[in-house]
Write a structure and sequence with these properties.
single chain; mainly alpha; rod-shaped
Length: 104
């Protein structure tokens, strides 16, 4: 695999990581498609041999991005659930406070 090709693929992967960290999943998908097109073009034109080590590194990076996306989704879900719980607690407090005020 040429250094330029590897650099391009790594650049796409890094951009995908940055987009995933910011939650821009549409951009992750676009970048992944572009990265795959570059790789497919290189394979079709015999620019790259079946370099298993390089492919494994790229797949590991992709796996890391997917793990990051899963973790981020879990964090968002957890934050949402915590927010709902806080809202419920506030509503309960207000209801209790309102009942106390009505009794007085």
């Amino acid at each position: 695999m040429t250094d330029q090709l590897m650099s391009t693929l790594v650049e796409f992967t890094v951009k995908m990581e940055v987009s995933a960290e910011s939650g821009d999943w549409d951009q992750v998908k676009v970048l992944d498609n572009k990265r795959q097109l570059v790789l497919d073009h290189a394979i079709e034109n015999n620019i790259v041999e079946a370099d298993i080590e390089s492919m494994n590194r790229i797949e590991a990076m992709q796996s890391r991005i997917l793990d990051l996306a899963k973790t981020e989704r879990q964090n968002v879900t957890r934050a949402y659930e915590e927010g709902l719980e806080r809202l419920h607690n506030c509503q309960s407090y207000l209801d209790t406070d309102r009942q106390s005020a009505l009794k007085e």
